[in-house]
Amino acid sequence: MSEVKTVAVIGGGTMGNGIVHVFAMNGFDVKLVETKQEFVDRAMNTIDKNLSRMVSKEKISEKDRSEAIDRIQPHLNIPGAVMEADLIIEAVPENFELKKSIFEEVDKHAPDQAILASNTSSISITKLAAVTGRPSRFIGMHFFNPVPVMKLVEVINGLDTDEEVTKSIMSISEKLGKVPVPANDFPGFVSNRVLMPMINEAIFCVHEGVAEPEHVDQVMKLGMAHPMGPLRLADFIGLDVCLDILNVLYDGFKDPKYRACPLLVKMVDAGKLGDKTGEGFFTY
Ligand code: 3HC
């Protein structure tokens, strides 16, 4: 298998800019694809701010920061960004039709030997792979927010993913200083199949009047040593994203244990989505 040197990341939002950050910091050439110049600027500013914070904490040098920034090449269209890439990682919102149209375009323009990966948190890797002509070179590479800090990469094998591709992605994840953990393609994989029912149950505790949000979170932080309580974490992830993932679990398994709490549905309907809207279970 040829070595991966150039990586294209499609999407510069929270996850995308974090993924670009870690690849650039670890010596890869990175092509960042966004749809508008203002989104490119926003992603680059965030990456620069996060790298500068690492410089001020003396975790990296100023030279490391500027070299990482220089390795990032922004693009406003997919063909130019992927035509020389060895690995293409999609990190756009959790919408199957959007991801499908992106992968169809990527598949047309990426070199035959390139690996295609999705950072999806719950959409089937097998189903995404099937929209391309290379399902054996398609894989899930699931990062966690904040990407520069969280150690895990959940590596998800689709039905047809080639073993060599899995090995290559595991080894690239290690080069990023991450710990890759393999999983097979089932709704929510491991991470969200375990995390989302916990978050949902915490919301049911509030819904049924068991405890106030801050008390639910205190129990899990102080009693279970979680760095964030489940409701703070739900706000951080985005309540809309939590609801989408629960719906994927519910639809995928047809099991009522994944039924989203009506309070979560109501909060999403009200536009209270957590950190990104300034209000969720807590205010920001
Ligand atoms: N980039 C770079 N560094 C960052 C950062 C970022 N975006 N955000 C935080 N950091 C660094 C800080 O600089 C700090 O560094 P230091 O240890 O050198 O001082 C360190 O991370 C800790 O940050 P803070 O001191 O600001 O705050 P906390 O100690 O409260 O930690 C946290 C913040 C790391 C977010 C911690 O609360 C945490 O681990 N929370 C849980 C996060 C989690 O569970 N994420 C997974 C979400 S699920 C997901 O992403 C999957 C999806 O499919 C839903």
Automatic annotation (TrEMBL):
<dbReference type="InterPro" id="IPR006176">
    <property type="entry name" value="3-OHacyl-CoA_DH_NAD-bd"/>
</dbReference>
<dbReference type="InterPro" id="IPR006180">
    <property type="entry name" value="3-OHacyl-CoA_DH_CS"/>
</dbReference>
<dbReference type="Pfam" id="PF00725">
    <property type="entry name" value="3HCDH"/>
</dbReference>
<comment type="similarity">
    <text>Belongs to the 3-hydroxyacyl-CoA dehydrogenase family.</text>
</comment>
<dbReference type="InterPro" id="IPR013328">
    <property type="entry name" value="6PGD_dom2"/>
</dbReference>
<dbReference type="GO" id="GO:0006631">
    <property type="term" value="P:fatty acid metabolic process"/>
</dbReference>
<dbReference type="GO" id="GO:0070403">
    <property type="term" value="F:NAD+ binding"/>
</dbReference>
<dbReference type="InterPro" id="IPR022694">
    <property type="entry name" value="3-OHacyl-CoA_DH"/>
</dbReference>
<protein>
    <submittedName>
        <fullName>3-hydroxybutyryl-CoA dehydrogenase</fullName>
        <ecNumber>1.1.1.157</ecNumber>
    </submittedName>
</protein>
<dbReference type="InterPro" id="IPR008927">
    <property type="entry name" value="6-PGluconate_DH-like_C_sf"/>
</dbReference>
<feature type="site" description="Important for catalytic activity">
    <location>
        <position position="142"/>
    </location>
</feature>
<dbReference type="InterPro" id="IPR006108">
    <property type="entry name" value="3HC_DH_C"/>
</dbReference>
<dbReference type="InterPro" id="IPR036291">
    <property type="entry name" value="NAD(P)-bd_dom_sf"/>
</dbReference>
<keyword id="KW-0560">Oxidoreductase</keyword>
<dbReference type="GO" id="GO:0008691">
    <property type="term" value="F:3-hydroxybutyryl-CoA dehydrogenase activity"/>
</dbReference>
<dbReference type="Pfam" id="PF02737">
    <property type="entry name" value="3HCDH_N"/>
</dbReference>
<feature type="domain" description="3-hydroxyacyl-CoA dehydrogenase C-terminal">
    <location>
        <begin position="188"/>
        <end position="284"/>
    </location>
</feature>
<feature type="domain" description="3-hydroxyacyl-CoA dehydrogenase NAD binding">
    <location>
        <begin position="6"/>
        <end position="185"/>
    </location>
</feature>
